[in-house]
Structure formats: C-alpha cells, structure tokens
Design brief:
Blueprint: H1 4-9, E1 17-20, E2 24-28, E3 38-42, H2 55-75, E4 80-84, E5 95-100, H3 117-133
Antiparallel strand pairs: 1-2, 2-3, 3-5, 4-5
Length: 134
C-alpha cells in the first residue's frame, strides 16, 4: 500500500509543490514550524529510514535537498536553512528543510503555524521560481 507521501508525489493527494525531478519531490509541510518548511522525499522508495536507502538514492536525495534549500533560502528571508531527518510520523523517508533565524526554530515541540491556503500557495510559488532559476 502506498504511503501518503507517495500519493502526494503522484498527485493523488494535493500538495504545495516547491520542486520536482524524475526521482524526488519537495513540498510544503502542512504543519510548518516556519513559513517555507519543506519536506523532500524520494518518489520511488518508500522505506521509512533514510539509512536504509541505497547509496545512489541517498546521495541523489541529499543533492536534491541541497538545491531545494538554496531556493528556499532565496525565497524566504532567514539566516540559514536547517535540516532534520526524523521519520517517525510517516513511514516514508523525508528530509525537513526549515528556514531558521535561531536554533529554537528547529524545535519540533513548538506549536506549528496555521496558515491560510493562499499563503501556502504564495510561498510554494516563490520557492519554485527560485528553484527553476538554479
């Protein structure tokens, strides 16, 4: 059975896409720690633990996430983009990219932002535009 993230990557569940290529997909987290909080996933591998990925997929995922992080930082004002790999809530490898101004911005125990759909769409569009420039 496909994971929710696989369904998102296939377009079966709507998302706010910020980047995509043949093997990987990046979209806004619907429960963000900060505006621009992005999830990066492999499209064709549903393993729930990043270190189970074969080297080719792992390295490709990291390279794709780096490019997305560059676009994210250009689109969303922040000091840097933080990276977290938890994988506890969805059984599909995913990397969190979170715009940071302080270390506390990457605390997953914090209350998540509540944003209107229009704001998600604006953020996704601005990141995608920056990604397409790279």
């Amino acid at each position: 059975m496909a994971t929710v993230f696989t369904k998102i990557a296939k377009g079966e569940i709507p998302s706010w896409k910020v980047a995509e290529n043949e093997d990987f997909y990046a979209f806004l987290d619907i429960n963000p720690l900060a505006e621009g909080h992005t999830l990066v996933i492999p499209k064709h591998v549903e393993d729930d633990y990043i270190f189970h990925l074969d080297d080719e997929v792992y390295l490709g995922l990291c390279a794709f996430a780096k490019k997305v992080a560059v676009a994210l930082k250009a689109a969303v004002p922040c000091k840097r983009v933080g990276v977290a790999v938890l994988g506890m809530e969805v059984p599909h490898t995913h990397i969190h990219l979170v715009p940071l101004n302080t270390e506390a911005d990457l605390d997953f125990r914090r209350q998540k932002l509540q944003l209107p759909s229009e704001r998600f769409a604006e953020i996704a569009e601005s990141i995608l535009k920056e990604y397409e420039k790279l």
